[in-house]
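User: quick one, sequence for these tokens?
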């Protein structure tokens, strides 16, 4: 196999395939490792870039991973199970695909003496609840919301010291992680595993903490799909998007092409960056805002605010993007209205 190959694990997936396309467009030699997990893929996607080599195999298969690493000088590790899943019964699958898969990859890299760049697909879910300030006590950690409060429609986390309302703020990368569901725990563990690998080998690991990614090639109609795809699926059959809580949850919705570009900058930029970076727009919106905008773009019925809630969800989490701008020169280019107008008609993955 040719030298100077960039390996993209999960390169047939939603984000990974866009990373592959941009790298190929830059003239890079790209190899995809992806086994098309049935929770996210119903078959081989028709958008795979023909200029990239594809190995259809599982990142947990040690011998296949070793073969995929021939000539590799940089790794973009996108392969993982995502989302909240169905229930806690998913725990072993998440740990196996996300943590064991990462461990197998890192062990094979270590045995080859790899000291290049690794870009890890991490997530804002490692923060748990976002950053909050109390008017009396300053910055405080928001406690997990109780089922009693949620059932009563009290969705905003109170100050743990005085019970006053809290004001959410943008989360910087140095915020203390507080994963609150299985997926979040596995993403933080991936960061820790890659950090240990970097300390042992001298590699550079950039952990990109994606915020709420949307855009073409999102999977649809699965328990692992993002909220934008779930809303669109309902609108396509003439049904209202069902918005949980009161719709006031604040998130940062970032287009997949921007996320892919952040990966490419981390892989190919002049100076490697070691550490975590938020990948977001810096302009948060509410989930209700997104549902209204998407319904308008599709000419569908207005969203229905249900008051329902999901265990493991958090109220507000949105990002400070200053460090990514400084370290990578990254600034999101796709605006909210532009992105959702495109997404209303974009190809999704069945």
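Assistant:
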């Amino acid at each position: 196999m040719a030298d100077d190959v960039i390996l993209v694990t999960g390169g047939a997936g939603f984000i990974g395939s866009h990373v592959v396309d941009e790298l190929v467009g830059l003239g890079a030699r790209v190899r995809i490792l992806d086994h098309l997990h049935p929770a996210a893929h119903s078959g081989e996607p028709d958008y795979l870039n023909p200029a990239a080599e594809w190995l259809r195999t599982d990142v947990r298969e040690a011998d296949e991973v070793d073969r995929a690493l021939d000539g590799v000088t940089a790794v973009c590790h996108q392969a993982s199970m995502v989302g909240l899943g169905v229930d806690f019964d998913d725990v072993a699958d998440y740990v196996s695909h996300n943590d064991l898969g990462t461990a197998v990859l890192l062990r094979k890299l270590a045995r080859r003496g790899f000291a290049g760049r690794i870009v890890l697909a991490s997530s804002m879910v490692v923060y748990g609840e976002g950053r909050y300030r109390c008017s009396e006590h300053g910055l405080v950690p928001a406690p997990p919301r109780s089922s009693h409060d949620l059932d009563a429609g009290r969705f905003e986390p109170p100050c743990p010291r005085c019970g006053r309302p809290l004001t959410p703020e943008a989360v910087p990368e140095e915020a203390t992680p507080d994963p609150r569901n299985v997926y979040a725990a596995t993403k933080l563990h991936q960061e820790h595993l890659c950090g240990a690998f970097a300390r042992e080998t001298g590699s550079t690991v950039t952990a990109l903490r994606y915020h709420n990614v949307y855009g073409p090639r999102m999977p649809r109609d699965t328990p692992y799909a993002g909220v934008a795809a779930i809303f669109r699926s309902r609108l396509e059959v003439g049904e209202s998007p069902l918005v949980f809580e009161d719709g006031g949850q604040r998130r940062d919705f970032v287009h997949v092409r921007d996320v892919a570009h952040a990966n490419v900058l981390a892989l190919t930029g002049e100076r490697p960056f070691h550490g975590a970076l938020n990948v977001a727009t810096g302009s948060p919106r509410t989930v209700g805002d997104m549902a209204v905008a998407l319904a308008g773009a599709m000419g569908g019925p207005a969203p229905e605010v249900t008051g329902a809630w999901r265990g493991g969800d958090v109220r507000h989490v949105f990002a400070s993007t200053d460090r990514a701008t400084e370290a990578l020169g990254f600034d999101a280019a796709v605006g909210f209205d532009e992105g959702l107008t495109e997404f209303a008609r974009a190809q999704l993955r069945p």
